[in-house]
């Protein structure tokens, strides 16, 4: 089956990906989609930096600047970082726990297509009405009074993408709880699986708050509700609460899986078991728990009062403790290890000091009294880029490079990877380190222009030059991908001398992942077998038939329906017909899904024995 | 093996959790309800923040009448009970009785929804208490309307399951579907208990 698919033409490949329910292919879809939006968000970042290269610049108009900065933030968070993390989770998590599939393959595909159409919807706004212009946080009443339909695209596009994320989260929770291989106890799960699991729990409990916030915003703008209209008794602070009850856990959703990637990378390339594994798990859970208790530190200047501000300040500072535990555990893992400076490892080594700086400015910002000075200045911009780029983005790239052989069976050129890292890393610090000082000098964030002769010129110029370095680094990465994939030189299933289960099967894995369910005999199961066994994972079951889910086009159609309906709801009047059609498509495909028995199919064991692996797990 | 999924004989004691797919659905749906809890908690929070923000419009104790709402509460609570009976018969592999009790559940659901629509209609026409009247009215209609939409979705869902499986018995494939639909039905029942308390009782006397 897989051999015929490999030789298929473009149309067949396209159809294959449109209808796939295979988590590995969905991972590739997330990777392509997320990276596309990453480039788009990067382009928007470049426009911002070019506008700010010099005082009183007229490179882009004020309105366009507002749109670009809004879309930069929205795109990077929701359409780049989240899906790229989902790409890694899809590609790796089921393999790491020895599962043949995820718990809900259909829902997994639906999650991807909802994200995709939500992202497309947001970006359609550029062409029809102008993009949203109220900042990625869309604070009311600014978002209520924003003219045109830009903010409607924001609300409805994110709503659709958010449904997808929620479904993806539930899928991974259940996958981890129900689908672990024999012997894979919770405390033997690789750290990436743990962090992805905890991030999924955060998604489950954080995203509904955003769902409600976006609904209220939509109802206010389109259906005459009064949630955020003070003249009718509304209260604009409700938006801020709902947004940050979602928004703060969201930053941990972004960073925890990156922590997981680094834990894998550091342990593999230090050739040591992760130091303090159980404290790492504990710290992850604690960060997630505290992450729900700190949202109001984004609202210190709202005027919630000294008691509320103090409580949220202390809770915020408390998060530095489990995070510090993690930093030290990574350092102790490196200590005395036989370190290989592969490119994922270099990303990890760059991450540690960068993220520590971001963490320290985080504690500074957590001091409520001092925050009145930092609030809405470039100091905040510098802080969250240090944690999101220095943590999440470095983590995503480390993960992509580390698992690239597992996903595609090829190896990215190490030399180019190192070039990418150094250009990106140096560029990053050039861009954002000086922004701390710009903020302390009083430069507010989100401003279209700054005035000359105020000591802001040089640092802004340096910042823009840094952004160019990052752009060049990214272009080298793209070049690397193209060259590697055109050459298509295959590597073995275990090119890094790995420790965890995913390295025990061929690269890319067969569509059923494991021919026989693996038996896990300890933490870092493959390493256990390498040290104490024959280097091969023992099977936990005799060779038998494998049950697989059927492919389906329904997820695509279901999401398309919501996409169409979104325009109808937005433009109303004669366009209501679009809402009717769109919702009918979605409801119809849901009924179809419910009515048609979908029992999957079996791969027979006779066929399995014909397949060629690299012999590691049969 | 695939045929076994559709066989209605020799069912295990808990057919909804006998297969991995069933266990996944069971657990996944519980987690989904956790997310739904946050959704309604956010709506309740918004409502509580705005429940006295009546602007020029009528206040809660001027519009709400407890008689109809009490009847609605009883109807919906009873429908939860009847869905339990349906699940009891499902586990006893008695599809006819299961369908009967599901039918009663759905009928009660329609009665509830009918009363709710009448209630909204009454508020709009007799008290000029519309969606845009005040922040309070927006919050009220959004919270209660979200619940009503959940009821409507549940009705379509359960009717769909009843029609699809009208001519076949309980099996390992459809038992989890029936079971999570009944879980969903209990959940919207619980939410209504909170709405009855927070919106109506507190609105009348709070």
Q: Low-confidence runs of chain A (pLDDT<50, min 5 residues)?
A: 1-5, 613-618
- The strand count of chain A comes to 2
Q: Helical residue percent of chain A?
A: 55-70%
Any guess at the CATH architecture of chain B? Up-down Bundle
Q: What average pLDDT do the residues of chain A reach?
A: 95
| Rg of chain A, nearest Å | 24 Å
Oligomer: heterodimer
The CATH topology of chain B turns out to be Four Helix Bundle (Hemerythrin (Met), subunit A)
What percent of residues of chain B adopt helix (DSSP H or I)? Answer: over 70%
Per CATH, the superfamily of the largest domain in chain A is Cytochrome c oxidase-like, subunit I domain
Distance between the termini of chain B: 59 Å
Structural class of chain B: mainly alpha
CATH class of the largest domain in chain A reads Mainly Alpha
Q: Describe it for me?
A:
The complex is a heterodimer of chains A (618) and B (206). Chain A is mostly helical. Chain A has helices spanning 2-6, 10-19, 23-51, 62-96, 105-128, 142-145, 150-178, 191-223, 237-269, 277-291, 306-318, 320-334, 343-366, 368-374, 378-408, 414-440, 457-487, 525-532, 554-571, 576-595, 605-610; strands at 546-548, 601-603. Chain A has two domains: 23-545 and 602-610, Cytochrome c oxidase-like, subunit I domain (Cytochrome C Oxidase, Chain A, Up-down Bundle); 555-601. Chain A has a two-stranded antiparallel sheet with strand order 1-2. With 206 residues, chain B is mostly helical. Chain B has one domain: Up-down Bundle (Four Helix Bundle (Hemerythrin (Met), subunit A)). Helices cover 77% and strands 0% of the residues of chain B. Chain B has helices at 2-5, 20-50, 60-63, 66-91, 95-127, 135-164, 175-205. The relative contact order of chain B is 0.19. Classes of the chains: A mainly alpha (618), B mainly alpha (206). Chains A and B meet through α7, α8, α9 and α20 of A and α2 and α6 of B.
């Amino acid at each position: 089956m897989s051999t015929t698919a490999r030789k298929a033409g473009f149309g067949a490949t396209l159809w294959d990906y449109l209808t796939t329910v295979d988590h590995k292919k969905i991972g590739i879809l997330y990777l392509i989609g997320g990276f596309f939006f990453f480039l788009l968000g990067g382009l928007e970042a470049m426009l911002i930096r070019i506008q700010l290269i010099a005082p009183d610049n007229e490179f882009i108009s004020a309105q366009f600047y507002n749109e670009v900065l809004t879309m930069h933030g929205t795109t990077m968070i929701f359409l780049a970082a989240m899906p790229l993390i989902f790409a890694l989770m899809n590609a790796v998590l089921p393999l790491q726990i020895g599962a043949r599939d995820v718990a809900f393959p259909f829902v997994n595909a639906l999650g991807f297509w909802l994200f995709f159409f939500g992202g497309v919807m947001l970006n359609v706004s550029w062409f029809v009405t102008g993009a949203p212009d109220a900042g990625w946080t869309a604070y009311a009443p600014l978002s209520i009074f924003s003219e045109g339909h830009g903010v409607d695209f924001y609300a409805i596009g994110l709503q659709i993408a958010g449904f997808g994320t929620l479904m993806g989260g539930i899928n991974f929770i259940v996958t981890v709880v129900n689908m672990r291989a024999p012997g894979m106890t919770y405390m033997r799960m690789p750290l990436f699986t743990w962090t992805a699991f905890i991030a999924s729990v955060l998604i489950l409990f954080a995203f509904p708050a955003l769902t409600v916030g976006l609904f209220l915003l939509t109802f206010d703008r389109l259906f005459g509700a009064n949630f955020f209209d003070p003249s009718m008794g509304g209260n604009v602070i409700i938006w801020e609460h709902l947004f940050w009850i979602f928004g703060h856990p969201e930053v941990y959703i972004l960073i925890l899986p990156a922590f997981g990637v680094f834990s894998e990378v550091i342990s593999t390339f230090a050739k040591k078991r992760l130091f303090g594994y159980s404290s790492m798990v504990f710290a992850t859970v604690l960060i997630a728990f505290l992450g729900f208790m700190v949202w109001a530190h984004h609202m210190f200047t709202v005027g919630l009062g000294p008691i509320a501000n103090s409580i949220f300040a202390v809770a915020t500072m408390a998060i530095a403790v489990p995070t510090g535990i993690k930093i030290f555990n990574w350092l102790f893992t490196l200590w005395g290890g036989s370190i290989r400076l592969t490119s994922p490892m270099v990303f990890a080594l760059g991450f540690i000091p960068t993220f520590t700086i971001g963490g320290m400015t985080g504690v500074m910002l957590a001091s409520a009294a001092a925050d009145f000075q930092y609030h809405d200045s470039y100091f905040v911009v510098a802080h969250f880029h240090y944690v999101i780029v220095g943590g999440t983005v470095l983590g995503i790239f480390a993960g992509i490079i580390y698992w690239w052989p597992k996903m595609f069976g090829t190896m990215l050129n190490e030399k180019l990877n190192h070039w990418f890292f150094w250009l990106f890393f140096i560029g990053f610090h050039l861009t954002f380190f000086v922004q701390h000082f710009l903020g302390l000098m009083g430069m507010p964030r989100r401003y279209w222009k700054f005035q000359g002769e105020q000591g802001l010129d040089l640092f802004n110029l340096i910042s823009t030059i840094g952004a160019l370095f990052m752009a060049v680094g990214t272009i080298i990465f793209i070049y690397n991908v193209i060259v590697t994939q055109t050459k298509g030189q295959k590597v073995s299933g275990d090119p890094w001398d790995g420790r965890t289960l995913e390295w025990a099967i061929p690269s890319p894995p067969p569509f059923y992942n494991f021919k026989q369910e693996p038996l896990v005999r300890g933490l870092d199961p493959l390493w256990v077998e390498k040290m104490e066994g024959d280097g091969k994972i023992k099977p936990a079951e005799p060779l038998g038939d494998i049950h697989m889910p059927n492919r389906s086009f329904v997820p695509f159609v279901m999401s398309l329906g919501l996409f169409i309906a979104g325009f109808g709801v937005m433009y109303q009047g004669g366009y209501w017909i679009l809402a009717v059609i769109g919702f009918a498509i979605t409801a119809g495909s849901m009924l179809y899904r419910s009515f048609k028995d979908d029992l999957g199919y079996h791969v027979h064991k006779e066929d399995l024995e014909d397949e060629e692996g690299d012999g590691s797990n049969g | 093996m695939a045929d076994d999924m559709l066989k209605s004989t020799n069912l295990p004691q808990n057919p909804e959790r006998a297969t991995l797919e069933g266990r996944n659905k069971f657990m996944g749906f519980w987690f989904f309800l956790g997310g739904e809890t946050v959704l309604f908690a956010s709506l309740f929070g918004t409502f509580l923040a705005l429940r006295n923000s009546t602007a020029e419009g009528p206040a809660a104790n001027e519009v709400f009448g407890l008689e109809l709402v009490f009847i609605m509460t009883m109807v919906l609570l009873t429908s939860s009970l009847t869905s339990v009976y349906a699940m009891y018969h499902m586990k006893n592999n008695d599809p006819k009785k299961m369908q009967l009790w599901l039918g009663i559940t759905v009928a009660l659901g329609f009665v509830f929804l009918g009363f709710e629509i009448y209630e909204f209609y009454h508020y709009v026409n007799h008290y000029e208490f519309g969606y845009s009247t005040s922040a309070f009215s927006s919050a009220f209609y959004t919270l209660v309307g979200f619940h009503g939409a959940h009821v409507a979705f549940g009705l379509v869902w359960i009717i769909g399951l009843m029609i699809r499986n009208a001519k076949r018995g309980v099996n390992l494939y459809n038992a989890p579907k029936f079971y999570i639909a009944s879980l969903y039905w209990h959940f919207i029942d619980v939410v209504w208990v909170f709405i009855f308390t927070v919106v109506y009782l507190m609105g009348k006397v709070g």
